[in-house]
Specification:
The complex is a heterodimer. Chain A is of the alpha/beta class. Chain A contains 15 helices and nine strands. In chain A, strand 5 and strand 6 form a beta hairpin. Chain B has a single domain, classed as Formate dehydrogenase/DMSO reductase domain (Formate dehydrogenase/DMSO reductase fold, Up-down Bundle), CATH 1.20.1630.10. Chain B is globular. Classes of the chains: A alpha/beta, B mainly alpha.
Amino acid sequence: MELKGPCPQDTLLSSINRRDFMKFCTAVAATLGLPMTAGVQIAKAVTSPERPPVIWLSGQQCTGCVEMLLRTDHPSIDSLIFNLISLEYSETLNAGSGHQAEAALQQSIERYKGTFILVVDGSIPVNEGGIYCQIAGRPVLDILNEMAPQAAAVIAIGSCASWGGVAAAEPNPTGAKPVHEILAPKGIGVVNIPGCPPNPYNFLSTVIHYLTFGKLPELDGKGRPTFAYSRLIHENCERRPHFDAGRFADEFGDEGHRKGYCLYKLGCKGPETFNNCSLVHYNDTIGCWPVGTGAPCFGCSEERVGFHIPLFSKSRVAYPTPPNQFTEAVPQRGSGSVSFAYGVAGAAVGAAVVALAKRDGNKEDEKS
Amino acid sequence: MESNPTIKTWTPVTAVLLLFIVTGSMAMLYRLVFGLGATTNLSDAYPWGFWLGLDVLGGVAMAAGGFIIACAVYLFNWKKYRPIVRPAILTAFLGYLMAVVAICLDIGHPFRIWHPMFMWQYHSVMWVVAMHVIFYTATLGLEFSPMLFERLGWEKARRAVGKVMVAAVIFGVMLSTLHQSSLGAVYLIAQSKMSPLWWDTKLPFQFLVSAVAMGLAMVSVETMLSRKFLHHKVDKEIFYGLARGTLIVLSFYLLLKLYQLFVVSGVGLAFNGSMQANMYLLEMLIGVIIPVALLAMKSIRRNTSWIFSINLLVISGVLLNRLNVGLFSMEEYFASHGLSYSPSWMEFLVSLGIISLGIFLYKMSAKHLPLFSH
């Protein structure tokens, strides 16, 4: 695919067929909770020659959020960054490097001033002037403060950018802060897409909503899009019937765990974490999400839960409060196969002893 | 002909048998009305228990004498064994009927027992077993029918059966060899659960060979018992012959088991002191090693009282083997999954009832049918 200049639309879309494209648009509409007819609007918006410029800024992060985006299939990363959006700058995906990349960034900011979408992943360290995370010799704190006022919208992706994440866990030596705390004094609103990493479709749907309708989707009090973060994982969890029936895995690898029982007693934070993981699974693979694979949710996307509450401590269930003791859902039947086995063995030995001992010693055979 | 006047219907033994039959039937009825979960200690994780191990695996192995003696008399024309061919066929017939009862009770929906006949799943060993049981029970019924026809005086029917008897025996021998081995083949699927002391690709052959040894011992024992208690007059040479057969078959079985021990599982596994190792050693000692050692001596091989004892050893040993394969070989696997199983008292009652029913029917047949006339 050619990379130079704004390409004509026909060559841009040559890598994706019509059917896949419409499927993608409809799926986005569904994720957003919009009627299917919105798919047509979305299709028009994302095929517009004026693709929205996106600048991706990274703070203290692990690249997990970018990796997450690389793993999408609908659309794939190449059709995403070349056809749907115009990714102007990303430390991971830049074609150039060093001064070349920084010069391109400055050009983009000037050209798209007031229209580009600023995506930030990673937390922003503020201790000692933010020297703990620097890009091109400048603290990322300064870069963010300079760039954010010129952006049309700011999206904080991942739990680090949204809440501080792992970098802000105690004792937080770098003074890591989430993006919204830094931009709040400037009066700049931030969309939070928390998760470690978040589901890529939550991010893509937010971006495409902005492209289609020219505004951000409805947000809750913490800046999260309500289409993805308004329900507890627990509410739609596939293992919820086990929770209600009192069938729990008590430890990793035990019978309940192997049978796919509820992971609550292993410290699952699903009952206090708002996310749509239980409905929209990862990597376009059904069942591919922590609870689906037998790992308890650790509340990565919830402020003050993930990276703050110990992994295996029980979560607070909104309602009802579970009893301290659960009745045995699968009671043990019978007991002691070993004692039964030795009982049978004893019977066999007894039979053998009787067989060998009790011979009437008749002499009739000796003659023959 | 008349009933055999020398056999008394009412004896203390009969009363005890009837008591077991009545209590066992009540437990069976309870199972039919309230289901497996209410009656047994079986669970979804532990679906095959005492009934399968003892009544089906053990019962079918016990019945193997039927096809061996029928083969010897009707196909090889070994006239010596003609006096015991009818008791042997009767035993096999009763053994299979009892296995069918146990299977009916053990499957989840007893009233769907006929499904395999019409809904073929020929990729399944279970289907093979089901069809074999159906065919062979029918064949045994046919082989058994002349006794009934003689009693009823239906000469035409008796002669008609006589004409197809050889064909029926050939069919029966074929089915039996297949069936005895396919019972072992059922367990091939359980490789991950069973201890390698028992699990092997040659498990079907081991089942067949041990069933032949047990069948010979069983025929010998029951003939001795009916000689003593039911006044059946037979020549001692028959017992000597059966004992020789048992020795040959058991020696071959010993070789099979030794091959398995040395090549498949490794010797150490049998001596590591675990429950499975001990059960394996016990089974081999009682059922194979001691009998072979004793039978190898000619003076013992030609002494009916020794033969009787050895027969009991072989029967106990092979029954133990079936219980080991069906239950105890999986102990380690189930223990690691936090599961354990021991039969409920009602499972014992049902098994006791089924076995008592078999003995009772044998006795009644001896009294009312021309079982020992030859």
